[in-house]
């Protein structure tokens, strides 16, 4: 981590801000909101923007970035932008066209980080989640090592500065790391990670290979009914987390974010609420002491896992 604690050096020499702004939103949220909240997040101080083709809002997020460049708030090199290769484009010949499509939607010359969104291939085509007549998902057979080679070529072409993966377990990572003729290691592995799912073993593995763990869902899992049992507890309502926050005069969200940063994890804070966006950026300020979590650990707190 750099002296100010704002960025982490990746294994290819580039730097990633330790706090990122997540742009995923449910379908009921209008695309125009992605434009407005991304502009607001940049104004608030976020410089790491995380998006994906799957989110179907890269056009609006790109417009927000370009507008903040145009008005002098930031320069392009100030922004670290992440996009993701969706599962319907994992065939090697589809990788560069997919990245070029994202760049066209964004109206940017390059992305800072391009990652494989999910280590499962789906049938290529316009449908993001292809299904047969019975509603069953249609998978595809792709060697992820060949997909990775196509990503390496995108890096060499200057379309992306860094390349990485998302939702990979350690065995899937090892397959890439042990690939004959590997040119570039993944710089990161983006996975769901929060105090209820701390990913300690995967974090240890990634650190041992100089791969940065990036945490999404850091404030708790997405409460989407198809994914999560609505009866499960809310992380930010956890009594232990609330007690820690109250004692240190912080919010549970800031404690959850700081928890990740102090264990060497890059953390994404997703919110379309302007008040919370302003609150989340405070995790990088002096108001949330760097020793906060060390104190917590010494006090013997533990969260359920």
Automatic annotation (TrEMBL):
Positions with a binding annotation for substrate: 117
InterPro entries per UniProt: AKR (IPR020471), AKR1C (IPR044482), Aldo/ket_reductase_CS (IPR018170), NAD(P)_OxRdtase_dom_sf (IPR036812), NADP_OxRdtase_dom (IPR023210)
Protein family membership: Belongs to the aldo/keto reductase family.
Protein name (record): NADP-dependent oxidoreductase domain-containing protein
Organism: Moschus moschiferus
Domain named NADP-dependent oxidoreductase: residues: 19-284
Record: active site: 55
Site positions for Lowers pKa of active site Tyr: 84
Keywords: NADP, Oxidoreductase
GO molecular function: oxidoreductase activity
Residue ranges crossing the lipid bilayer per the database entry: none
SUPFAM superfamilies from the UniProt entry: NAD(P)-linked oxidoreductase
């Amino acid at each position: 981590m750099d002296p100010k604690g704002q960025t982490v050096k990746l294994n290819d020499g580039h730097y990633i801000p330790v706090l990122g702004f997540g742009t995923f939103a449910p379908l009921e949220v209008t695309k125009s909101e992605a434009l407005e909240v991304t502009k607001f997040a940049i104004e608030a101080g976020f410089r790491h923007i995380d998006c994906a083709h799957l989110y179907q809002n890269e056009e609006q997020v790109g417009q927000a970035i370009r507008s903040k460049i145009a008005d002098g708030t930031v320069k392009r090199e100030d922004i670290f932008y992440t996009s993701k290769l969706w599962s319907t484009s994992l065939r090697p010949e589809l990788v560069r066209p997919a990245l070029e499509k994202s760049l066209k939607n964004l109206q940017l010359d390059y992305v800072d980080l391009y990652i494989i969104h999910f280590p499962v291939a789906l049938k290529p085509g316009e449908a993001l989640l292809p299904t047969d007549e019975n509603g069953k998902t249609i998978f595809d057979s792709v060697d992820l090592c060949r997909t990775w080679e196509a990503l390496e070529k995108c890096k060499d072409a200057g379309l992306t500065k860094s390349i990485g993966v998302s939702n990979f377990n350690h065995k899937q990572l090892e397959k890439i790391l042990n690939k004959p003729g590997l040119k570039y290691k993944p710089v990161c592995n983006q996975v769901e990670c929060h105090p209820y799912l701390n990913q300690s073993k995967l974090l240890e593995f990634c650190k041992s290979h100089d791969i940065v763990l990036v945490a999404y869902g850091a404030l708790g899992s997405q409460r989407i009914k198809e994914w999560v049992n609505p009866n499960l507890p809310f992380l930010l309502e956890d009594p232990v987390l609330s007690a820690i926050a109250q004692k240190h005069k912080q919010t549970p969200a800031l404690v959850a974010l700081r928890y990740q940063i102090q264990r060497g994890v890059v953390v994404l804070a997703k919110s379309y609420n302007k008040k919370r966006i302003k609150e989340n950026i405070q995790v990088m300020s002096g108001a949330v002491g760097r020793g906060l979590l060390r104190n917590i650990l010494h006090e013997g707190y533990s969260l359920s896992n």
